[in-house]
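step 4 of 6: structure.
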Amino acid sequence: MITLFVVIPALAGIFSLWIKTTVSREIMIMTAVFHLLLTVFTFIYPFEPFYNGWMAINPSSQLFLLTLSILFLLVGFYNRDYMALNSRVSRYEAQQNCCMLLMFSAMSLVILSRHFGVIWVAMEATTLFSAPLIYFHRSHTSLEATWKYLMICSVGIALALLGNMLLSYAYRASGSPMLIDDLLPIAASGDRNWIKAAFIFFIVGYGTEMGLAPMHSWLPDAYSEAPSPVSAIFPALMNCAFLSVLRTGEVCQAAGLGEFRDEIMLFFGIASLLFAAIFIIGQKDYPRMLAYSSVEHVGLMSLGAACGPIGMIGSILHMINHTLVKGMLFMISGNILAVYRSRNVNKVGGMLQVNPPAGILWLAGFMAITGLPPFGMFISKLLIIRGMLNSGSYVMAAVVLALIAVIFVGMLLIFIPMAMGTPPSGTSLKPAKPRLRWLLFPALISGLISLLLGIYIPDSVYNLVLEVSEIFGR
Amino acid sequence: MINLIFAAVILSCLMLSASSRIKTCIHIVAFQGAAVSLLPLLRHHIDWELLILALIAALVKTLILPLMLFRSMRIAGVRREVEPLISYPVSIAISLCGLSFALWLATRLQLTETTGVSHLMIAAPFFMMFTGLFLIISRTKALTGIVGYLVFENGIYLFGGVLGLEHNFIVELGILLDVLVMVFVSGVAIFHINRKFDHIDTGRLTSLSEDTAEGER
C-alpha cells in the first residue's frame, strides 16, 4: 500500500508524457487528489511498512506528506489554468507535467523512506527531475539557471553521499546499519568524530537543496526563471531537504551530539537570514525577492530546529506556513507577470486599480510572509524566538529580530508600491482575462489555510506537530 | 598490485588537470571508472552480489557514461580544447598542492589501523574529489563540468570502497542510476546551451547575477 505514494505519481507522469494532450493537466490534479486521500487514509488505517521497514509511515512522514499533497493539489489546479493561458508553449507541456509528477513521486519517496541510502537516491532524483522544469520558457536565462541548478545541486548532494559513507563508517562496529530505526537504538555506540563529520557533510549537501546560505546561490536564479507553477512547488522540495537534515540530526541527537548539531544549524540559520536581508533590500526583481525570502525562511526553520523543544515546534509550524504562503505568492506572481509582462518592481504598480483581486491577495500575502498577525507565520516565528530565549541565547534572539525587521522593511518597500502605487504609464497592460481570475483561486485557498493556522490550529494538527517535534527534538 | 592501481589513479588525476583535450579527459574518466568499480573485487571475499554490482558499475562507468559524453561532445561540436581559466602549469601546481593536502589528511585521519589500508589508498579518493571540484571550477566548457562531476563522484565511490563499507545492492544501483540520469540530463542541457548560445562556455553564462538582474527578461 505504502508504495502507492511513489508508484502512482510516477506512472501518471509517464502516462501524461505518452498521451501528450491537455488531459495531462487533469491527470495531475487527479493524482494529487489520490495522494491527498491516501495521506488522509494513513491516519485512519495504519499502513504496513514496506521491505523490512525501508519505507514506513510515522508522524513526521504523515505531516510532511500532508503538506506536500495539499500544495501539489493547489498547484495542480493552478497549473491547469496557467497552461491554458500560455498556449504558446504548450508544445513542452507534456514534458513539463511528466517531470512535475516524477518529482512529486521522488519527493514522496524522500518523505517515506527510512534508509539513508534511499533518501539520498530520492533527493538526487528530485534535483534531476526538477532541472528540466526550470527550462520551460526556453529562454537563454532560464537555460543558464537550469545549468547552475544542475551543477550546484548535484555536487552539493554528492557531498551528502560522502556524509552517508562517513555515517556508515562511524557505525562499522555494529555492521553499518543505514536504517534510521536500526541506527537510533545503537546511536551512542558510534564513533563520535565520524558522526560529526557526517553531519557536516549532510547539512552542506542537503542544505544546498534546501537553500541554506551560503550554498543558496542557485536559488534566486532557479526560482525567478522557472514558470510560476514550478516555483510554487519548490517550497515542498525544500521541505524534503529539511526533513533529511532533521533525520540526520535525529541520529546526532541520539548519539549525544545534540549541542554540536544545534551549533551547526544555528550557524547556517543566521547566515541565511543575513544573506536574505542583504539581498532583499533594494531588490528590483520580485520573483528574486521571493526567492531570497525563501532563504530567510529556511534559515528560520534551521534556527528553530536548533533551539530546544519549543523552537522545534515553531520550526515545524513554520515549515507548514512557509509552504502555503510561498506557494500562494508564487501563484500570484504568475498572475502579475501575465498582466504586466515584467518582472521589474518599478514596472508594476497600482495592482489594486488594475487587477483588484490580485492586489488584495498580494497585500495579504505580504502580511502572511512577514509574519504579521493573524497569519500562521506570526505564531511560528514567535515560537522560534521564544525557543531562543528559553535556551538562553538572548544576543542571538536580538540579532535574529533585527534581521527580521530589516527584511520586513525591505519587503514592505517592494510590496506596497506594487499594490498601491500608480499603474505605469505608457505601457499597454494586458486586460485581465476572466481566466486570470481563476489563477488566483488556489492562491486564495492556500492563503486561507495559513490564516486559519494563525487563528485556530485544529487539535489533531497540533498534536501531530507536537509528535513530530518530539521525534526530532528530544 | 593494489598500491600500483592507486598510484595510477592518482597519476590519472594529475593528467586530468594537465590535459588540454576533452577526448583525453573522457578516456581518463573511463579508466578511473574501471579502476574504481573493479577494486572491491580485489579486496573482499567475493560473493555473487558483489560481483554483479561491480560488473554493472564497471559497465556504466567505463562504457555507457563515456559514450554518452562522447555523444554530447559530437552533438555540441566541441573543439578539442578544454579552455582553462587557470593555465596548465598553474593547474598542475594546484593539483600537487591538493595531492599533498590529501596525503596529509590521510596521515591525520588514523584510518590505517582500523581498515588496514595504506596512506596512499586513503589519499587517492580525497585527491580525486579535489581534482573533480577543481575541474568544475577552473574549466569553462560545460562538458568539462560534467567530467569534473564524474571524477568527484568516482572519488566518493572509491572512498566507500577503501573504507570497506557494506554495499547495499539496491542503494548502489539507485546511485548508479542517478549518475546516469544526471549525465543524460546535463547532456540534454549542453545540447540546448550549444543551440541557444552557439557555444558551451559556462564562463560566458553570466546574465543572471545581482548586478544584471534588472527584472527584465
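step 5 of 6: annotate
 - Chain A touches chain B through 49 residues (CB under 8 Å).
 - Chain A has 19 helices and no strands.
step 6 of 6: archive
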